[in-house]
Amino acid sequence: MSDILHALFISGGILLLVVILTLIVSIVTVNRGAAEMAGGGHEHAAEAVALKESSPTAAKPAAKPAAGPATDEINVLQILGLGTALFVLAILGLFALSLIEHM
Question: What is the DSSP-derived secondary structure letter of residue 39?
Fold first, then answer.
């Protein structure tokens, strides 16, 4: 078997594992989101509200509610940027490893 085919089989095997891992993570994430949209993710929130209402400070009126959206949310552009940065770092690391091995 030639070296090129051997390298292609190795890279194909690695890529297949990455694709399978990506599919598993995607399925878990979508199922978690679907359960949260259906109301399945709020069991603990009801307990927290019940505990908060029974506390002695519950009789005080709340200050003013938050006016804007939460600032710690991650948007799609941040995720894409981080993914691209990680990809570039991985490729540069593999390139450096290749250069070190060939010297």
Answer: T
> What three-state secondary structure class fits 40?
coil
Tokens of 5: 């085919």
Cα within 13 Å of Cα(67), Cβ side? 0
CA distance 13 to 2: 17
- The 8-class DSSP code of residue 103 comes to -
Please say whether the beta carbons of 90 and 96 come within 8 A. no
pLDDT digits (tens, 9 = 90+) for 75-94: 888 888 999 999 999 999 99
Residue that has been written with the tokens 């679907």 in this structure: 34
Q: What is the CA radius of gyration of the chain?
A: 24
Residue type, 64: K
SS (H, E, C) 56-84: HHHHCCCCCCCCCCCCCCCCHHHHHHHHH
pTM metric for this prediction: 0.40
Identify residue 47 by its one-letter amino acid code. E
Residues 58 and 52: beta-carbon distance below 8 Å: yes
